Amino acid sequence: MDAVGRYRRVIAFGFITYTVFVIYLNFQTKETSVEWLLKKHRPSLNHSQHNEVLNFTTVTKENEISQGNGVTERCSKINYSYDQKIPDNMFRNSLLPLKKYNVTFCRVPKGASTFWTRLLVCLERDQWKPPFVFKPNDGSVKLKNDFSKFSVRKAYKFLKNTKNLMFSRNPFSRVLSFYVDKLFSPNPFYWNDLGIGITKRSRGFATCGHDVTFNEFVDYIINTPSRMREYHIMHINDICRPCKIHYSFIGKMENFENDVSRILKEIGAESYPYFAENFKKEYTSDAIYDIVQAYFANRRDSDKCIDRHTGIKRVWLKLQIRGIISRTIPVPFTSKESLSLSFPKLLKSIIKARDISENEDMKAQKTMFITQAYSNIPLDTMFKLQSVYKKDLQIFNYDLFPKHLFGTRQRGNSTIDIFCLK
Fold first, then answer.
1. Which of 181, 123, 160, 187 is nearest to 322 (CA)?
2. 42, 77, 377, 418: least surrounded by Cβ within 10 Å?
3. How far apart are CA 47 and CA 41, in angstroms?
């Protein structure tokens, strides 16, 4: 199946999943609502905090926000042109117009695209509330995308007259994020849509798609033509075309909080009141809710491939890899308890673990996990993966050979597989 067909299936599946889950939520207690979750963990803001731009991280060469010109220069230096075999509708459908602010945002999958869609809807509608009150699959959370009706030439012409924004993400991080979210975590849709094909090609026979290894996934990326690759892991350059379009601002996931605040200020939306000291907690609360609701929405189908305790352990490790809960906190449920685990109980347990973890260095933990995940990839394969995403690395000013992924490696070195759950 090509990228266009897979993209359509993702959209259709998302709508069906959301509809089923809304019905499911009607039978849950009020404690399961996102409003309860946010109200419980949102401190009140005073007026002086509304316009505050916080320094969450130290700005470095790799995480600094770009004003656009540097990207243009790097595109020229490497003589880059986007892959013309990638369907134009991938590019057009990634553009979100924010007409009130004369801004166009390009969504990058696995680059906080869901967050940005919800935030831009709040701004366009003058809804002064956190973007997190919208559920990720809420069908009402969308902006009218006139670009889908435009020719590419007309889209280019339009974009010359708006401020254009986008977010990039380190390709190595983006690849791991997709694997953890779509293939390792309980996700029957992607197991069926992608996992079965990967295992069949890798092993010569198909499994349920639930047991794709990270090595097999990396091999899939390397051996699949870019136009056939899964939409979420396509080159950022081919999705947003920064070498063809001038982007006024290019933020980075590695400096997420700072760049969101700075972009809001630059487009004249700095009075939006939900980016003070509570932002990070609200962001993780939203992620927790999303992960838990997805687990329960998919549980019946995932039961066909893995037992429930394994499913819970995968969810738990996913939260640890994302730096939401400490790696020192074990899964608090037995195999028997996992069989009848309720939505509120799992939600509360994860929130409790998140709160206990607040004083730990989660940035270091995330680095440790990505280092361990890639340490089991053969060095020759690492070079091939780097080659696949080399242009993204160059254009967005990422290190071509990150020391924690390449610098301490030795051929034939074996390490612990973090995805091997016991």
1. 181
2. 77
3. 19
